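Protein in question reproduced for absentees:

***
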Amino acid sequence: MKICFLGDATAYHLSRWSNYFSKKGYKVSVITLNPEIIDGFDGVKVYLLKKKIDKSDLISRILNLAPTLIKLKKIIKEIKPDIIHTHSVSPYGYLGALAKFYPFIITPWGNDVLIDVKESKIEKIFTKLSLKKADLITCDGENTEESLINLGVFPEKIKFITFGVDIKKFKSASDEEKKNLKKKYFSPDSNIIISTRTLNSIHNVDTFIKAIPFVIEKISNAKFLIAGNGTEEKKLINLARSLEIYNSIKFLGKLEEKEMISALLASDIYVSTSLSESGLAASTAEAMACGLPVINTDTGDIKLWLEKEGGFIIPVENPVVLAKKIIYLLQNSEIREKARKVNRKVIEERNNYYKEMGKMEEIYKKLVDSYAK
């Protein structure tokens, strides 16, 4: 079976998904619009769709559409895939629908069907048309499924598949391992709180930073890791400096997978201050797999994933409440230990990368077989 993915080749979600099938012996290709392709596509051939106009505004996107589509069809003709799977509706689902190749699957990534369709009538029209053309749609959240149905998708056309966590890589560390890893960032006796969300407005990392002065006031050895990059990076660094807490934070930038695991294992608490989510964020799931207690804003499907002993669900944009929960967890090691076991078990049982990709493999086979008949 030849599988062709259309998606952002800077996204680890896409590389992990495509690598699974490459390692299983399938011929896998990725077609992307993003020239900043990350390392880690193992045995996967990546094709770049060069845009005629390197801008993202609406007019540029419209002008790019015809030449991009011609190039896409040429690559598809060369690859001769058995199935095409687009990751995100905009823009890859649009291109997949216009390519008129079947079988065709779309996996929304959250904002495309939760936010973009509400903010733009044009996005909503293209999204609805693309979803209608797809043979099948996978999603990882009940809130996303509800949005898809509101956009006119029949429920029987939707399959629930999470991105999954590689539980062989993301796992708990012993106390001794954790102390050694802490040295990489701060001192071995520091209490480390981590955020791994991208530094874009939707993830509201400024709330995390605003909570830090309250925490430091009570816990003098509290230190903070902020992993990820994004449009708000400079703004967040300036905020930390203005609050005179910059020396208590390390901004790590975008991390490779091994570095991300190292940062998580060095940490004692994971925080997500996002304003919106599809299902359970992959970054939250990874932290849970590493045995971290979680403090997460009340977004997406977090209430379906975070059990009472696994951490706290807090309101959005409330640094005071966030700080209180961080302090409570730092002062109660037995609560953190319970959370470690509970969160790890949840991911092993319900968000296991190998199980989820196994489900996806069966979906591919059935769709390809149905078109072969």
Residues 156 and 230 are 36 Å apart (CA to CA). The chain has two domains: 2-164+353-372, 175-350. The chain has a mean pLDDT of 94. The first helix runs from residue 12 to 23.
